[in-house]
Amino acid sequence: MNKKKMIIISLSICIVLLISYLLFFHNIINSNFATNTFVKFSNIEEIIDKDDIGELKQILKGRTFRDSPACGFSNEISITMSDEKRSIRFCPALDGDPIIRINDSDRYIYISEEQRKRLDKILEKYGMTFPCI
Question: In terms of Cα–Cα distance, which of 34, 26, 28 is closest to 79?
Fold first, then answer.
């Protein structure tokens, strides 16, 4: 092969890899790193039940999107998952919609209606009930 074809093939491979990264790995929220989980509602309470933590980690992962939904969100009604180095705050939609705001940003994850029901059931154990507008 000549040099020009090699450069074109190399650039094509780089572009495909970049697009694959952006489509499949960029903006993925995954809280599997977390060793501590806290719920903030009227006070801050640590979740120590391993089953609840595992289920929350499953529900609260996915691809983030920029959006500006009409649902209300509050840092005062949130779930924080952290370890010694980093943390992520998840703010469920106050009206009960299956949308979760990430930290204090314009990034959101959408969960299924079934996942939202499971989330509400877990959070109810810790004093959170929805809708809470």
Answer: 34
* Every domain of the chain and the residues it spans: 1-28, 31-124
In three-state secondary structure terms, 80 is strand
pLDDT tens digits along 93-125: 999 999 999 998 889 999 999 999 999 999 999
DSSP 8-state class, residue 65: E
Q: Which DSSP symbol is given to 85?
A: S
Ranges of the chain with pLDDT below 70:
1, 18-26, 133
Cα separations (Å) of 10 from 3, 23, 89, 103? 11, 20, 40, 38
Report whether 93 contacts 100 (CB < 8 A): yes
Cβ-count burial of 59 within 10 angstroms (0-12 exposed, 13-18 middle, 19+ buried)?
buried
